[in-house]
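Kindly inspect this chain:
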Amino acid sequence: MTMSGPRRGGGRSEALELAVEVYRRVRGVVRRTPGLLALSLVLGVSLWVFVADTENPTLVDAFPAPIPVEAVNVGESLAVASQLPTITVRVAAASDRWQRLSAANFRAFVDLNGFGARSQDVPLQVEVVDASGVRVVDTSPRVITVNLENQLTNRVPVTTRAAGQLPIGYELASMAALTSTVTVRGPESLVALVSEAVAEINVTGLTAGVEPGVKLKPVGAGGGEIRGVRIEPANVKVGVQVIQSTIIRTVPLTVDVTGVPDTGYRVSSVATSPSTIQIQGAVQALQAIDRIALPAIEVAGARADIARSLAIPMPPGVTTLGASRATVTITVAQVGGAQRTSFGVHAINVPPGLTARLVTPTIEVVLNGPIPALNALLPDDVRVVVDVGGRGRGTYTLPIRVQPPEGITVGFVQATAVEVTITSP
């Protein structure tokens, strides 16, 4: 609420100057005429009131918050059957007190002393609580209609209701109130609507049994809350039992490989994606599972890698929380071996008009590589040469070079050099 008032700076200076002047004159008069002392006191008080009202003016406005209404002095055999409204109050208070006021500073009520069981208009009364210098000027409305009925009591059963959700793998074993029935008290028309008192319990996150105290709620046959009645006792203890019905485990995926790859090949690795999965099921079922086996894959005669997408089989009573399929990749590699073979040594780059004669025309070479590649080698696939380029007639000892095809390596050469004689034809 925004409040406005006179400017404080100029008003305060003028008021102080006026007070000093009045005080000086009154003091002189009182000295000459003591009988005027009473008059000076009256003038002083009036001046203080004037200055105070100038500095902190009184504001009259509607209080911004609604005020609830309560009923007092209701007959022992009667009860209020209507919902009492909230009201608006118009308040007069000094401007500095407005900022400190709250709805708790006002008590609105209707005095039902002497009223009978019927619907009637009752004037409102409002009291100011714990706030001085505050006055209620008006209320809106000034009168409210109150329906009084004969008070009735009844016994109703206590039922329980679970709200929220238990964690995955847990279930509610039992939930029961330790008090079976309670008393409902209130207007006869409302009490007649109450069929049960419900204790609602939030079970979210529960993993163990609890026994909380729960406030009861009066409920009708349709499940709706009936307001305007009291339940005695208002709270009861409820025993809640939670059990772990299922558990979650992470287990690896495995796959069996059947058959044998082609000659010279072998299975070098088997990989699954994902390699593990989360499964959920009853405790007894999951205790016996340490892995999930995928369907077997046949590799007979394989010469290349194999990739398969397979459905993940689930045992009875078990479900997966993740992927339902897995990709299996089988890597098939060639088997390595060695082969010892004799090759002829050839001279290359022989100068024109000359001939080259090798003392050792053949040598043995051990070649390493995949067995299929070694078995497929032809004699001309491997070159064993001696380079005599740039040399004239004479006898030389020159290095031997072995040139295998791609994928084959030289493991051993019988001789690293050979004696070559270069002559005329």
Observations:
- Residues 8-32 form the longest helix (25 residues).
- The two ends are 126 Å apart (CA to CA).
